Amino acid sequence: MRxxxxxxxxxALPRGWVERLQDLRWAGxxxxxxxxxxxxxxxxxxxFFLLELAERLxxxxxxxxxxxxGVYRGGSAGVLGYQLRRSPLPRSLWLYDTFTGTPAAxxxxxxxxxxxxxxMVGSEAQTRRILERLGVVEGRVRxxxxxxxxxxxxxAPARVALLHxxxxxxxxxxxxxxxxxxxxAPGGLVVLNDY
Length: 195
Fold this sequence. Notes:
Layout: H1 2-12, H2 17-27, H3 31-36, H4 44-59, E1 65-69, H5 75-86, E2 93-97, H6 111-114, H7 124-133, E3 141-145, H8 148-151, E4 160-165, H9 170-180, E5 184-192
Parallel strand pairs: 1-2, 1-4, 2-3, 4-5
Helix pairs in contact: 4-5
């Protein structure tokens, strides 16, 4: 229904009006959400939830880095980067993605995911622009490009405070948990999205 309404609005309203309406809808959101909202598939509620978890880890003084497996266009990475910038603890942000689209699904994945191969192409450049716009220091961000199940073995943080897994497929989700769960700091949090 939402897509039908959006399509109708794009056809019925003069060019640029739909974007202006979306800007108005996002105008009441805190700054990081206005920046990241167009670049994520997460709902506002999920973005607020992710930020709240990161803020709590700072209040609880849980040591370790923020890690996101499955970055897409950098929206939720921007939320984590925003909190990283505000964090009193010496953290880094680790981002893992192919940035070439959804990898091929395995026999363990739902049927509809097999048709997603090559779709949902992310953008490392867009992710960097979002982080820059939010004032995140580049030296605190580590972007690891490639298949998550391969790259995690090559480069991973020693200690993880927050692990956000949003890669939708069995193999990268399993690899994320196998490699990073043992590195979770006491009191650290794991967020599994869409699995």
